[in-house]
Amino acid sequence: MVVVSHGRLRSIAARILAAAGALDADANLVADHLVDANLAGHDSHGVSMVPHYVRAILRRVLDPRAHAVVEDRGGAVLAVDGRHGFGQVVAREGIAAGIARAAEAGVVAVALRDAFHVGRVGAYAELAAGAGLVSIHFANVVGHPPLVAPFRGREGRLATNPFCVGVPGPGGAPAVLLDFATSEVAFGKVRDAQARGEPAPKGALVDAQGRATEDPAVLFETPRGALLPFGAHKGSGLALVCELLAGALGGGGTVSRVPYEEARIGNNMLSILLDPARLPGGAGLAAEVAATVSWVKGSPPADPELPVRVAGEPEAASRAARIAAGIPVDGAIWEELRAAAVSVGATLDG
Fold first, then answer.
1. Which terminus of the chain is more solvent-facing, meaning fewer CB atoms within 10 Å of its CB: N or C?
2. pTM of the model
3. In this structure, are 137 and 20 located in the same domain?
């Protein structure tokens, strides 16, 4: 395990991405997003993605210089063509346009299509919350083989399709931020377990015969095993809804019809942004959030060592700890970063 300061990790990620062809400003933005995911404790969406991005650039399925084209569809609807650019760049541009439109209309739907991997969806909910907006996000994954078995299935038919809701926190407090994959765990967590030589979380995987397993290798073999949806039929149903709203309605396509491409991780995302001031409870929202969070957290913990937390608090705690002590990076992932750097003529030092 290598422990690296967040500043150095940002510099390393940005340097590799710039060497791969990204403009400096975009390389810095993507690096910031990835390292912020590490800070939040979501290492599966952090700098471990850099080698994947480099491979995608070299295979020409990710355009490192593409920017979003925002299409005004009238009223409270915006469509955003990501043009196969960095998801962190084009999604941010789409959400920025949505924030501006929500200020005018009170509500806006932003349909992003044809983005490369958008990263941690919670980052876009945090952007909206910073502007005082409530947001709801549905995402799907295309161009990549499906990895999640539907309820009662044993073969991948869906992706990890994230769902996210953000509600601004009272008085500058962190947002109440619900952000999760609709699979039992994100694919990146299984990939990272494979890199570390560790078992996958119990109850997350089945092998190609549908038997429960903790061996992460089943997702990288032929025939392939599958991730399971969280909450049985509930997670499976929500994954399907994400597929339809983000992919079908947004125009970027669904996993059932978009062809697979080596190294591609395509995302579509439907985001709904709401100005709480336009709604009856808007004036009292901050007080209600504070009171409700306090009420929920007031439940006596079943285990005194594990206090009750609400969505967003684990990330805030991890961020504070890792800013102070550094970010742990698994040795295997560190070597993947080194190899990615070498492949584009960069180094981890500098």
1. C
2. 0.95
3. no
